[in-house]
Amino acid sequence: MTPVGARRRARELALRVLFEADIGRQPMAAVIDRVATEVPERERAFFHALCEGVWRERDQIDALLAQFTLEWSVDRLASTDRAILRMAVYEMLHLDTPTGVVINEAVGLAKGYGTEASGKFVNGVLGAIARQREHRADGGPLPPLGPRARARGGVSVLRPPAGSAAGGGRMGAQRTRRSRRDRR
Fold first, then answer.
1. Does residue 104 register a pLDDT over 90?
2. How many Cα atoms within 13 Å fall on the side-chain side of residue 109?
């Protein structure tokens, strides 16, 4: 497996861990222990840093994500999208991976495991966060705002994809069917 392929596999497995710990309300350590054997040897440190870091910092990450979603709490986002966004934000803020790589990998995960619109949504949220970070880092002006952002006082926010509250793409498909039955 190439280094890029190994890193991608570590991200996929980290997504699985975060999803299971979040949705299944299982202890993070137990899920990590169960999945860690599947992680390529050279990426185990990255995998552990990502899983444990996201879990430890999830309240701060969720607060940041809440600034970029419109009329939705982070808890109402599709479970898969939420896990991908948390993971990408943690990697952008705390690890040395270039921002463009983080966004591309997150969009790839969203397209592979989320709903049809997840890739665009994840790309938009992470792009807005990256622009905000870039602005703060160089002290330069914010990028031009569209009319909707200007109407909200300069805050760039995005709506989650339709059906996001249902449970989250392929990973949440079983939960979605169960939830819909329960509402009847």
1. yes
2. 30
